[in-house]
């Protein structure tokens, strides 16, 4: 019983530690998880009502084409329904893209560090991942472009980038998309798009009119606060969306997720309030990092990657003992920590814990 070669050495995804596990292991009563960029403000009340109403239909298979949700999202983005495909999180859209387009021998280009699922799914399909180091925490688009050749199938751009939080601006992105051959798919993973307030951030939906090879990924897991329901989507040319639908499992998203997402899209007041509260949180955290003399990458999502100037595992462990779950151990950034922006109260507790960890390290020398 030998599985396919491409997966033998593949690691199992290590999620941010669940709160219950940390409490049990460390005997803590209060634990704050700032490790997975979840929404600290929960989710829309209208989505909650939609979930409650949909429970009655649990014995019936969901709508395979998410028709109601597709209409809501098409309206919100001003695109055609045929340009949308839904997945069990945008993670599944990444998987479906790899499944539909990548074969052994193909090359696919991504940044390093970036969201690990691009490489993970490419590896399963036997494709070769070409990882292009970030430059000052940002995508190096000219270097990525230089790697495009006749074997290249997909280029992944994570905007804002996870884990660094930096963005690619509209001018540089447009230049890149124009230069990439039209047979190469350009994936714009915009999991945090709704948080971005910077004027240079591209309104990427408008590229879809001119570039058949562009596909945009969005999710309901982040600002919409529906992470546990597993729902996200891709927006692209109808032909590309059709190919993704051909590899999609018939009932890949649930009734409850579809209903919740459709209600969540309509509740723009909740999203605006989360965006504003996140902006306040970012400002607070940046001011505190400045006060502590710690540098960070310019954040545009709901997380910040900062340089602790200590081995990141040490800071991670110190924060964990104080009830804060963060993310550490990045390949290229051995002293950096990624921290999600929480509620005001959570952010204050995080900074207190961080100061205690830094002081402890200074005392221990
Ligand atoms: C969280 C995240 C996703 C996908 O999350 P889903 O829960 O699968 O929708 C995709 N890309 C990036 C960069 C993310 O941070």
In short:
With 365 residues, the protein is an alpha/beta fold. 40% of the residues lie in helices and 14% in strands.
How many helices?
Answer: 13
Q: At the fourth CATH level, what is the homologous superfamily of the largest domain?
A: Type I PLP-dependent aspartate aminotransferase-like (Major domain)
CATH topology of the largest domain: Aspartate Aminotransferase, domain 2
What's the Cα radius of gyration?
21 Å
Percentage of residues assigned to helices:
40-55%
The second-level CATH architecture of the largest domain is 3-Layer(aba) Sandwich
- Annotation, overall tally of beta strands: 11
How many separate domains make up the residues? 2
N-to-C series of helices and strands: HEHHEHEHEHEHEHEEHHHEHEEH
> Please, what is the average pLDDT?
96
Name of the level-1 CATH class of the largest domain: Alpha Beta
The biggest sheet amounts to: 7 strands, mixed
| CA-CA gap between termini | 52 Å
Q: Proportion of β residues?
A: 5-15%
| Strand order across the largest sheet | 2-8-7-6-5-3-4
Pfam families: Aminotran_1_2
Cofactor: pyridoxal 5'-phosphate
Catalytic activity: L-histidinol phosphate + 2-oxoglutarate = 3-(imidazol-4-yl)-2-oxopropyl phosphate + L-glutamate
Subunit structure: Homodimer.
């Amino acid at each position: 019983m030998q599985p396919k070669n491409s997966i033998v050495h593949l690691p199992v995804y290590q999620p941010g530690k669940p709160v219950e596990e940390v409490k049990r292991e460390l005997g803590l009563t209060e634990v704050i998880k700032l490790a997975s960029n979840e929404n600290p403000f929960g989710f829309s009340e209208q989505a909650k009502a939609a979930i409650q109403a949909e429970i009655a239909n649990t014995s019936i298979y969901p709508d395979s084409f998410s028709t109601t949700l597709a209409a809501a999202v098409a309206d919100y983005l001003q695109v055609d329904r045929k340009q949308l495909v839904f997945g069990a999180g945008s993670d599944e859209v990444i998987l479906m893209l790899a499944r539909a387009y990548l074969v052994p021998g193909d090359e696919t280009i991504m940044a390093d560090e970036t969201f690990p699922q691009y490489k993970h799914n490419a590896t399963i399909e036997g494709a070769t991942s070409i990882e292009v180091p970030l430059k000052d925490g940002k995508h190096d688009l000219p270097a990525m472009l230089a790697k495009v050749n006749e074997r290249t199938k997909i280029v992944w751009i994570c905007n804002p980038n996870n884990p660094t939080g930096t963005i690619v601006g509209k001018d540089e992105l447009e230049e890149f998309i124009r230069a990439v051959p039209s047979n190469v798919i350009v994936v714009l993973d915009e999991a945090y798009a709704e948080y971005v307030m910077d004027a240079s951030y591209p309104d990427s939906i408008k590229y879809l009119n001119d570039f058949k090879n562009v596909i945009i990924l969005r999710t309901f897991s982040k600002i919409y606060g529906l992470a546990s329901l597993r729902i996200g989507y891709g927006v692209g040319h109808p032909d590309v969306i059709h190919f993704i639908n051909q590899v999609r499992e018939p009932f890949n998203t649930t009734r409850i997720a579809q209903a919740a997402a459709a209600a969540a899209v309509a509740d723009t007041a909740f999203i605006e309030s989360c965006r504003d509260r996140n902006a306040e949180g970012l400002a607070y955290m940046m001011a505190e990092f400045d006060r502590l003399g710690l540098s960070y990458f310019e954040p545009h999502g709901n997380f910040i990657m900062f340089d602790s100037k200590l081995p990141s595992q040490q800071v991670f462990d110190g924060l964990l003992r104080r009830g804060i779950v963060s993310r550490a151990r990045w390949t290229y950034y051995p002293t950096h920590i990624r921290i999600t922006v929480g509620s005001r109260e959570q952010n204050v507790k995080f900074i207190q814990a961080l100061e205690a960890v830094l002081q402890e390290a200074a005392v221990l020398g």
